[in-house]
Amino acid sequence: MLPTRVRRVVAVACAVALAASSGCSGDDEDSSDSPSETAAGATAPGPPAAMSGTGARAAKAFITYYWAVVGHAEKTGDTTTLRDLAGDGCDACDEQATRIESVHDDGGSISGGDATVAGLQVLDHAGNATTYDVIADVEVARRTVTESKDAEPVEEPATYQTLDLTVSHDDGHWMVDQWRASSPE
Q1: Which CATH number is 38's domain given?
Q2: What is the total count of domains within the chain?
Q3: pTM of the full predicted structure?
Q4: What pLDDT shows up at residue 75?
Q5: Which domain covers residue 127, as residue numbers?
C-alpha cells in the first residue's frame, strides 16, 4: 500500500490526465495544442502539432499531451507511452505508472476524478533554453479507485492542488524530468 501523500499525488495526476484528455485545459482554446483524439481510448493519443518545437508554447502543448497520456493509461492500464515520456530521474512518473499498472494488473479500475486546470504557467528554467518549470493549479473532482478485482471501491475526495513540473526537450522529444504536488488547501 502506498503512503497517503503518494496516493494523493497519483490521484491528482490521474485526475488531471482525465481532464486533459477531454480537452479541459482551462488555458487556451486553440485546438492545435490538444492531443489528437482516438476511438474509444483504445490507443494512446498522438502528440499535437504544437508540441513539435522547443519553446514555451511547445512545452505547454507537451504538458497537455502528457496528461492525456496519463488519462489513457488510467482507462486502459497501458503505460507504455507514459513511461516513454518520463525522464530517467522522474520518481513521481515511475510511481504513477507503477500504481496504474498495479491497479489494472490486479483487476481494479480508476474512474471519475475529472479535473479542471485552473491555471497554467510555463517558466524558463535557469540556464537551459529547452527546460521549463511549469506550475499548474488543478481542481480534481471526487473519484473512485478499486485497487483489485476483489477490493471494495474507495471514494477519494475532491482536491485542489498546485503541481510543480520540470519538463525538457532533448534528442528530439519532450519528457517530464520531475513533478510534485503541494498539499491540498
Answers
A1: 3.10.450
A2: 1
A3: 0.73
A4: 81
A5: 4-181
